[in-house]
Amino acid sequence: MKIFVTGSTGFIGQHLIKALLAEGHEVHFLLRDKNKAGLFSNEKAIPHIGSLENIESYREIFNQNIEVVYHLAAIPGQKWGFRKKDYDELNTKATERLIKACYGKIKRFIFTSSINAISDNQFRRDDYGKSKKRAEEFIQSFPNKEWSAVILRPAVVYGPQDTQGLMLKLCRLIKRKKFYFLGSGRNVLPFVYISDLVSAFLKAKNASPAAGPYEIIGPDLPTFQEAVTQIASHLKAELPRINISLWLARPAALFSESVAWLLKTEPLITQHRVDIITRHKPLGYQKAQRELGYNPKIIFSEGIKKTIEWYQKNGYL
Fold first, then answer.
1. Cα 209 from Cα 148, distance rounded (Å)
2. DSSP-H helix ranges across the chain
3. Which residues, other chains included, contact 194 with Cβ-Cβ below 8 Å and sequence gap of 6+?
4. Which pLDDT does position 220 carry in this prediction?
5. Considering only CA atoms, which of 270, 279, 224, 276 is closest in space to residue 251?
6. How far apart are CA 135 and CA 117, in angstroms?
7. Interior CA angle at 99 toward 132 and 218, to 5°?
8. Domain residue spans in the chain?
9. How far apart are CA 18 and CA 3, in angstroms?
10. Nearest to 227, CA basis, from 268, 164, 276
């Protein structure tokens, strides 16, 4: 099978492409930096230099009998320094351009959304979540006569080689005794280990019928307090004893962001991080299990042990 992947150099993208190559597929992937063209040492890994902002840089790829597209490229929600217009351009409009280029030429389009696209009565969608939701709605506006589209909503992804996500930041704060609970810590924050997420991606290319959105989470749902306790235990660090109330945390995050914009530095805390680590989302993966055959294997205690061991071995902690 010929497959096209965006977001190939990211944490998730690299794991996915290696898994697709292991299955024997021919994987075409989009790159901005030609110096990374040799990232995958496999003759079936075929780089294409271009960017999602420029449709002409990749349109020709879909004349090469591509059957499946995995769209992973996006600005992540936890990354500081981006505004609404950036999320709109790189998460929503780039997705729209990609779909216009490949619609009618491929069999399946698999979109990486986020649990942040889900809204509830307690928390508003932030600009990241809104951009993902708008992309979902655009995808769903296309009839399934010419293709089938599958939307996956991963939880907080973690695992070895993740050096840009929430988990490494959290581990470092706990190790340095700079972490404090925001709120009670009794909220459920869904996590998913990288190998489980990759298994969902692999299932999504073949399952029929499939559409989603599908929440992709791990097999257990620890509270945030339980997750922090396990992280501290593996790091042999002291548990934080101070809880900061939400009514204080949110204004503090807004102030921290304002100062960071003025000084052109990264804030100590952001409104996005406050929302993420205090949001109560006891989600389930039953729909993905029923329609995709998704069965996550790695419980949080096992996954965080492997992740921290990798961080320590490679000098990140």
1. 9
2. 11-22, 84-87, 94-102, 127-140, 166-175, 194-204, 224-235, 246-263, 271-278, 286-292, 300-313
3. 11, 12, 15, 157, 158, 159, 160, 161, 162
4. 95
5. 270
6. 10
7. 40
8. 2-154
9. 12
10. 276
Torsion of CA 190, 196, 202, 204, to 10 degrees: -30
Low-confidence ranges of the chain (pLDDT < 50): none
CATH superfamily for 2-154 is NAD(P)-binding Rossmann-like Domain (3.40.50.720)
Give me the sheet containing 45-49, strands edge to edge.
45-49, 26-31, 2-6, 68-71, 108-112, 148-154, 214-216
Percent of residues, the chain, with pLDDT higher than 90: 57
> One-letter amino acid identity for 203?
K
> What's the start-to-end Cα distance of the chain, in Å?
40
> Which residues are registered as beta bridge partners of 182?
244
Residues contacting residue 25 through CB under 8 Å, at least 6 positions apart: 1, 2, 3, 44
How does pLDDT run across 45-91, given as a tens digit for each residue? 999 999 998 899 999 999 999 999 999 998 876 666 677 888 888 89
**HSE toward the beta carbon, residue 31, CA cutoff 13 A:** 18
The DSSP code for 223 is B
- The pLDDT tens digits of the residues spanning 205-239 come to 998 877 889 999 999 999 999 999 999 999 999 88
